């Protein structure tokens, strides 16, 4: 994600309204100064849309045109709302409300419910899956785990499109929606789910919007009260609004037109949740006198990345494609996107990890690299490959930073130390703010070196390390800052959900990567059936898949790698084809509709020769079954098959690994993962060739650690020093 410098982490608040406009390009300045009437900002990827709208709000506030409390800025994720609040605070407009649709509606619902209904708002159902499962069971409909998740999503779609249970089957047919079960069955489950909620006095997140809409429609006095409070509205990611969210926005506005919307139809990737770009595309029809500004100067990506992004959209069709924006890169040229074909998925993961390790060695921070895939199930093989390569990583979509238990505990400890001041013995030998923070957090599990291995202990350390880095940045930006100043900064960041960056390569789905950016992006698994996904059957669904790939491409600033594997597992039939979306864009291909040129010039294949190296199938050495799971292939046996591991050898290898990790200053998994050590202890290799045949022991690790490992396997003692490079 964005690597912020001290000046961008803790910038000085602009001295005046005019100073807020400094540094904006002509189009961004036009957005910032268009403070009256309806405004529509069509903003391409990387063009600084958040910068433009936050400067617009701040300029209006600082110029006295907008009162902070009268502005409501809405977006779609807590992270985006938090980022917006953080930026507004840094621009001197901290009193502005920036919220998601749901949080804004929930706040209003909680305030007005006692007046409208009486009592407290019904309890909010955090996870509806369990109640959907109960409803299905009462309907005597069996759902497996995947079907349960999909049916829950269908109920969410029905509610945001304002479809009642009885109308669900007809709505599915009209929308050409591929329902996961018989539509009548889902309608039945949906109806009983709603009944169970009523019986138990609970509501779900969609109800928050529905109930707020209902109150504002029925109670004009309450609608007027909200309209008196909020005079001006800004909606980010307007291409993602659902019909229900649009209705809520219309009720907030009333007959006024003090509205600014920002969006890009080419980044509509959530239609399965009910989102539609129609409201963005129809804005000028509804508001004929609107100010329309297009942002097409791309400050994020190199001309090479932008050229590929534009090429993807040039092949698109449909209404969103008719309104596509042609991006113009503002950056210096960089490397061409790399296209790589692999024999199988494990080879693709290993090759990706190898290239990432090379990037890190060349100076690219691990936190500035991302591996993006179509579905979350693809992450496991990349987690294993990165661990084997000794590269730290983080999975996106985990708990929000300031809600983590260790971060809350750290905040309490830092607040206590700040109150105690010079009376805290912990701080006696700590000179300077960073040293004080390190001293306090050392009582909570922070150490100067990361712990060995992965999992919860490593995650906890990464969270605390992020706080230490933030303290170091804060001290560089504000040398006179005290521990109390840092605590105040953390409190403001927690309120704004403005989290510090956790280091490590990001593994994320393409959907969850929306709104983020990295120096280097690896788009993996780009085969037909995965991109576009198999269940994308209609033209509209296929075009949304194209837009999803476009979003992935435009996350990259400098380095972009696109890859695919011809088979799922080693030795499998090479029947897969690279995604159609790259035809005519990657070297050696022509656009769809033309005869495909032979060969694949410009596409790198695994190995230095043009011929792919084919592997034989990996068989379980116990039962002989063909293995496809990456972890099982490493062990050369099924997980359920009995292990013949030498437990004593395994423990000796673990002790040796811990010593190596300490000397190298790296986590233990950077030497060998637990699975690799288990495989070694089961195979007990007696030669370099046998050791090299174990998955996870590549040429680099064989050269570095092979002598020691073979000696341990032979029952010999080894010196404590780490192997040579």
- Total strand segments: 17
Radius of gyration computed on alpha carbons:
28 Å
Give the helix level as a range of percent.
40-55%
The end-to-end distance, rounded to whole angstroms, is: 31 Å
Beta-strand content: 5-15%
Q: Helical element count?
A: 29
Low-pLDDT regions = 1-7, 595-601, 607-616
Q: Which helices and strands appear, and what pairs or packs with what?
A:
Blueprint: H1 6-9, H2 17-20, H3 26-33, E1 39-43, H4 49-62, E2 71-75, H5 78-90, E3 97-100, H6 101-116, E4 123-124, H7 129-138, H8 145-160, H9 168-174, H10 183-200, E5 202-203, H11 205-218, H12 220-229, E6 232-235, H13 243-253, E7 259-263, H14 278-281, H15 283-286, E8 291-295, E9 297-298, H16 303-314, H17 319-322, E10 328-329, E11 338-344, H18 345-361, E12 369-373, H19 379-388, E13 393-395, H20 405-420, H21 433-441, H22 456-477, H23 483-496, E14 505-509, E15 518-523, H24 539-553, E16 556-567, E17 604-605, H25 630-635, H26 647-664, H27 674-683, H28 688-692, H29 699-713
Parallel strand pairs: 1-7, 1-8, 2-3, 2-6, 4-5, 6-7, 9-10, 11-16, 11-17, 12-14, 12-15, 13-14, 15-16
What does this structure look like?
Helix content is 45%, strand content 10%. The model is unreliable at 1-7, 595-601 and 607-616 (pLDDT under 50). Helix 5 links the parallel strand 2 (71-75) and strand 3 (97-100). With 725 residues, it is of the alpha/beta class. Helix 6 (101-116) packs across helix 11 and helix 20 (405-420) runs antiparallel to helix 23 (483-496). The protein has a seven-stranded parallel sheet with strand order 13-14-12-15-16-11-17, with helices on one face. It has a six-stranded parallel sheet with strand order 3-2-6-7-1-8, with helices on both faces. It has a two-stranded parallel sheet with strand order 4-5.
């Amino acid at each position: 994600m964005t690597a912020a410098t001290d000046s961008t982490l803790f910038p000085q608040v602009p001295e005046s309204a005019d100073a807020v406009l400094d540094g904006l390009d002509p189009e961004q300045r036009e957005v910032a100064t268009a403070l009256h009437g309806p405004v529509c900002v069509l903003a391409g990827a990387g063009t600084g849309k958040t910068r433009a709208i936050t400067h617009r709000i701040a300029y209006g506030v600082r110029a006295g045109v907008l009162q902070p409390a009268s502005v409501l800025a809405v977006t779609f994720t807590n992270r985006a709302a938090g980022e917006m609040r953080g930026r507004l605070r840094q621009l001197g407009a901290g009193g502005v409300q920036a919220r998601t649709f749901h949080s804004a509606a929930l706040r209003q619902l909680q305030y007005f419910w006692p007046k409208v209904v009486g009592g407290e708002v019904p309890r909010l159902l955090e996870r509806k899956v369990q109640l959907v499962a109960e409803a299905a069971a009462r309907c005597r409909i069996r759902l497996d785990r995947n079907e349960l998740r999909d049916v829950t999503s269908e109920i969410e779609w029905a509610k945001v499109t304002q479809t009642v249970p009885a109308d669900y089957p007809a709505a599915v047919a009209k929308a050409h929606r591929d329902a996961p079960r018989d539509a009548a069955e889902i309608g039945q489950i949906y109806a009983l789910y709603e009944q169970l909620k009523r019986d138990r006095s609970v509501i779900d997140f969609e109800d928050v919007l529905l109930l707020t809409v209902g109150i504002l429609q029925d109670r004009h006095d309450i609608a007027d009260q909200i309209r008196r409070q909020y005079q001006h509205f800004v909606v980010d990611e307007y291409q993602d609004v659902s019909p229900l969210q649009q209705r809520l926005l219309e009720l907030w506005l009333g007959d006024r037109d003090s509205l600014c919307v920002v969006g890009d139809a080419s980044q509509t990737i959530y239609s399965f949740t009910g989102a539609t770009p129609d409201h963005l595309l129809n804005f000028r029809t509804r508001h004929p006198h609107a100010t329309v500004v297009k942002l097409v100067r791309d400050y994020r990506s190199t001309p090479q990345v932008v050229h590929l992004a534009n090429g993807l959209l040039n092949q698109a069709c449909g209404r969103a494609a008719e309104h596509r924006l042609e991006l113009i890169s503002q950056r210096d040229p960089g490397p061409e996107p790399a296209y790589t074909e692999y024999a199988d998925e494990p080879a693709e993961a290993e090759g990706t990890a190898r290239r990432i390790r090379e990037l890190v060695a060349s100076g690219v921070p691990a936190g500035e690299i991302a591996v993006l895939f179509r579905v979350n199930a693809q992450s496991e093989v990349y987690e294993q490959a990165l661990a084997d390569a000794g590269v730290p990583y983080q999975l996106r979509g985990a708990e929000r930073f300031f809600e983590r238990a260790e971060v809350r505990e750290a905040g309490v400890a830092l607040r206590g130390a700040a109150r105690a001041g010079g009376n805290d013995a912990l701080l006696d030998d700590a000179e300077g703010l960073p040293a004080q923070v390190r001293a306090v957090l050392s009582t909570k599990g922070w150490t100067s070196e990361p712990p060995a291995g992965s999992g919860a202990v490593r995650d906890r350390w990464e969270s605390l390390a992020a706080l230490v880095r933030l303290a170091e940045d804060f001290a560089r930006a504000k040398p006179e800052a005290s521990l109390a100043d840092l605590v105040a900064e953390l409190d403001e960041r927690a309120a704004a959900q403005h989290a510090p960056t956790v280091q490590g390569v990001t593994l994320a789905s393409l959907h969850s990567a929306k709104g983020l950016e990295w120096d280097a992006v690896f788009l993996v698994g780009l085969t037909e059936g995965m991109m576009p996904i198999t269940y994308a059957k209609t033209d509209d669904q296929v075009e949304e898949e194209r837009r999803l790939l476009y979003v992935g491409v435009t996350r990259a600033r400098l380095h972009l790698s696109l890859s695919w594997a011809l088979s799922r597992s080693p030795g499998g039939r090479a029947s897969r084809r690279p995604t159609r979306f790259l035809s005519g864009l990657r070297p050696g291909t022509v656009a769809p509709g033309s005869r495909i040129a032979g060969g694949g010039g410009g596409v790198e294949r695994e190995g230095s020769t043009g011929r792919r190296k084919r592997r034989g199938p990996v068989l379980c050495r116990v039962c002989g079954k063909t293995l496809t799971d990456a972890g099982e292939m490493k062990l050369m046996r099924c997980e359920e098959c009995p292990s013949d591991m030498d437990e004593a050898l395994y423990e000796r290898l673990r002790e040796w690994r811990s010593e190596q990790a300490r000397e190298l200053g790296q986590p233990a998994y950077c030497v060998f993962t637990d699975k690799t050590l288990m495989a070694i202890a089961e195979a007990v290799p007696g030669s370099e060739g046998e050791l090299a045949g174990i998955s996870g022991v590549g040429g680099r690790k064989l050269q570095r650690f092979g002598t020691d490992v073979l000696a341990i396997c032979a029952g010999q003692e080894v010196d404590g020093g780490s192997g040579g490079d």
